[in-house]
Amino acid sequence: MNGWFQGRYGFDRFSRTLVLTGLAFSVISWFFGRASAGVYYAIRGVTLALMGFALFRTLSRNFAARQQELARYLTIERKIRAWWQNLSIRRKNFINTRKEKKQYKYLACPQCMQKLRVPRGKGRIRVTCSKCGNRFEAKS
């Protein structure tokens, strides 16, 4: 049994994701098992396919093909993580902007259209654009 895994590709990040996704589908199938037998067996089929593919990758001797699969997976994972992080940042900015709108008024410079933030309730004030240096008066 010592040399059985010698020369095999082994367990990597993509295989781990396949196994965890398979386990998630397995748990989901428990809930749908009571509703419909067809849905249950379809989800179980997906579970077995994911687990089988993970096992195939782990025991494979074709390192080049498994490395290409891993590279494609990591590219997709990177894009999903960037999208999720961008969504999280946009949500935080939306919440902060809503809070700040009570304290600040947002203006656009008439010359360069740069967004500027001025305190609310100060009456007419002279604003200097931080980007182009244009000075203009605005109501805050």
Present the secondary structure layout.
Layout: H1 13-32, H2 37-59, H3 63-100, E1 104-108, E2 115-119, E3 124-128, E4 135-139
Antiparallel strand pairs: 1-2, 3-4
Helix pairs in contact: 1-2
Low-confidence stretches: none
Written as H for each helix and E for each strand, in order along the chain, the element string is HHHEEEE
Distance between the termini: 77 Å
Figure out the total of helices.
Answer: 3
Based on secondary structure, the structural category is alpha+beta
**Largest beta sheet: what is the strand line-up?**
1-2
List keywords for this structure.
alpha+beta, elongated, two-stranded antiparallel sheet, 140 residues, two-stranded antiparallel ribbon
Structure description:
This protein has 140 residues and is of the alpha+beta class. Helices cover 58% and strands 14% of the residues. It is built from three helices and four strands, in the order αααββββ. The protein has helices at residues 13-32, 37-59, 63-100; strands at residues 104-108, 115-119, 124-128, 135-139. The strands form two sheets. Strands 1-2 form a two-stranded antiparallel sheet. A hairpin with a 6-residue loop joins strand 1 and strand 2 (115-119). Helix 1 (13-32) runs antiparallel to helix 2. It is elongated. The model has no long low-confidence stretch (mean pLDDT 89).
